[in-house]
Amino acid sequence: MVAPPTLTDLGHDIHFLALIESLPIAIYTCDERGIITHFNAAAVDLWGREPEKGVDQWTGAWKMFRLNGKPLPPEECPMALTLKERKEINSDEIIIERPDGTRRFIKANPRSIIDTTGNFAGAVSMLIDVTGTKVIDEERERLAAIIQGSGDAIISKTLDGIITSWNPAAEKLFGYTEEEMIGQTIMTLIPAELSDEEPAIIGRLRKGERVEHFETKRLTKSGELLDISLTISPIRNSKGIIIGASKIARDITTQKRLNEALRESDERLRMAIQATNLGTWEFQPNTGKLTWSEECRSLFNIPVDLNIDYQFFSKHVVPEDAAFVETEIQKALDYSGTRELNIEYRIRRSGDGLIRWVRSQGRTYFNDQNQADRFIGTILDITQQKNEELALKDSLELFQTMADNVPAMIWMSGSDKFNDYINKTWLEFRGRSGKQESNNGWLEGVHPEDKEKCIEVYRSALEHQNGFYTEYRLLRFDGLYRWIADNCVPRLSPTGEFAGFISACIDITDLKTMEQRKDDFIKMASHELKTPITSIKGYVQLLLSIYEEMNEDKLRSSQITVKSSLTTVSKQVSKLTRLISDLLDMSRIESGKLELSYSEFDPVLLVEETVQDVRHTTSRHTLVIHNKFEGALQADRDRIAQVMLNLLTNAIKYSPSANIIDVYISGDENSIAISVADYGIGIDKSDQQRIFERFYRVEGKNELTYPGFGIGLFISNEIIQRHNGTIHVKSEKDKGTVFTFTLPLMKENNVNE
Length: 753
Prior knowledge:
Blueprint: H1 7-11, H2 14-22, E1 26-31, E2 36-39, H3 41-47, E3 63-65, H4 78-85, E4 94-97, E5 103-114, E6 120-129, H5 131-149, E7 153-158, E8 163-166, H6 168-174, H7 178-181, H8 197-206, E9 211-219, E10 225-236, E11 242-251, H9 253-276, E12 279-284, E13 289-292, H10 294-300, H11 310-315, H12 319-333, E14 340-348, E15 355-366, E16 372-381, H13 383-405, E17 409-413, E18 419-422, H14 424-430, H15 434-437, H16 448-464, E19 468-475, E20 481-492, E21 498-507, H17 509-547, H18 552-557, H19 559-591, E22 599-601, H20 603-615, E23 622-627, E24 633-635, H21 637-653, E25 660-667, E26 671-678, H22 685-688, H23 712-722, E27 726-732, E28 736-744, H24 747-750
Parallel strand pairs: 23-25
Antiparallel strand pairs: 1-2, 1-6, 3-4, 4-5, 5-6, 7-8, 7-11, 9-10, 10-11, 12-13, 12-16, 14-15, 15-16, 17-18, 17-21, 19-20, 20-21, 22-24, 25-26, 26-28, 27-28
Helix pairs in contact: 17-19, 19-23, 20-21, 21-23
């Protein structure tokens, strides 16, 4: 082992210090505390800074790192370890970083310093810059890794064509292993018919030329012929003499096939463009050059040899669309914009001036300075499509206008079950917006008792793609539930595929009520007809039993009973006759066959006769006539008497606790008004508007005790209206009711066609 230098050797030998200073290798010394005491210019150059003697400790480097890139603290550097352990340290390479950010790989060799008395006095370290060697080694390793990992076959050979290297990609491409090919001639890979290529390539390499992208064919171990692209470079020795060649071989078989397929595709595209009249164009913003295909020129109706530019194109855009087209084009030409164009607009053809709808699609390609270099695209005449769209739009608008103005509530859904259209009538009925009712929003208004049924009916119809009819209660805007009839049918696409449903819904609440009244009427009619018939049958049987009595004295004593029975039978027959007459009249009214037989008569006399007839039917009520009219009336006398009889019998029926019925007659030279007033139970205000409806009977605790079909006032109203007259009611609950009808006096004024 070499003895460590002494303090005399390094600290006091001026000649030795001068020698260190002149050395090209970085050297510096530290005392036993690690304080730097000396350093030469080479060290300053390596560190990139000049440390301060007596201050800086362990090292003059600005920053230090281990080879793994982690920071190396100064107290752990080779010099520090040597001073701490007071022995030689075989340190690994480290990295130092200069203040300018550059880094160097160094090998430090610190050695102890012993003074003249044999005591430890510090250390000296020589720093060897191994950056160059490191870079070369790394570059060599990197190149080797690249060659080994390259996807391209890389082969080196002598100028005699003998293979000297063979990477894994070459093995994969040609099928030969490295052991099989090293030392073999490159002619192994060249087909016989191309054997003259190799001498020509070698000749160019000897001249120092590089062969790039030379497309040829080569053989694999299995005999397959591949399309190959070769790039061959000469290899020179350290003296610059060409000693061989490096060859990169790339399989372009697939690329060749793709190119062929691309050419075929281009040809098909060209044919398709011609078949569809799709025009192509290219605009170069830098030069202003505009190129149109034959189809594009045909669309604009311009000859093939006419020179065109951007201004020519702009001139033929319809003025109303010009600003929009220009804005979209500028967006496409802006690097920070869309860079693409896809617009529809109108043009005016050259020559004939015809306006055509077109669709332009394009893309801008930019250069390295982000400037628009090429703007290319297509143009297609879509006039027919646009006209069809406009016709469809008009049709849809017409449909929506019609749908929004029909009384039915209409909704449509897609095949996804959700509603995609609800008409205005529905929304007004619900008092909600389309957004609120869309999808399943409409279900919020379905009565809780009907909701599950609605969901199940719709689910089943959607599953089987068939129509359905259902009834349910739906909440109206005023908070009332109304019965809805929902009649739904499937919608089909133009190709016949299921596209959803369309349904028309109507409010059937009144119809439901009418049906209920009809049912009630049938029950009541059965009862009302059965009662007089039963009564007649009973009295007839009584009379028959009396008649069978052979004793004249008994027959004579039964005369009172017979008379009473016959009177009752007569009343019941009259009642039965009226019921049947009312039913016949209602049937005639519904079929439009209620005929009027006009004659001129004294209406006051008619009222008196009718009142007199009614007086015989009641012993409790007094009927009083108040007449202020004189004159004649042209009308159907029997029908007017029928109205009077109905009003009078109703007045008696619904005033059981009163004893007066007043009849008022008044009029002028044009009309007559007749009123019947009672002081009975009255009619609630909510029922007064509906009292003249068919089968309508006022519902209430008291009203249900009175018999009747609920058609008398309906028939009376129809009779008066057919005379071109009016009938109305005024009533107050528990105070009485006044019915008044007014008729024109002359026939020509009271005939309702």
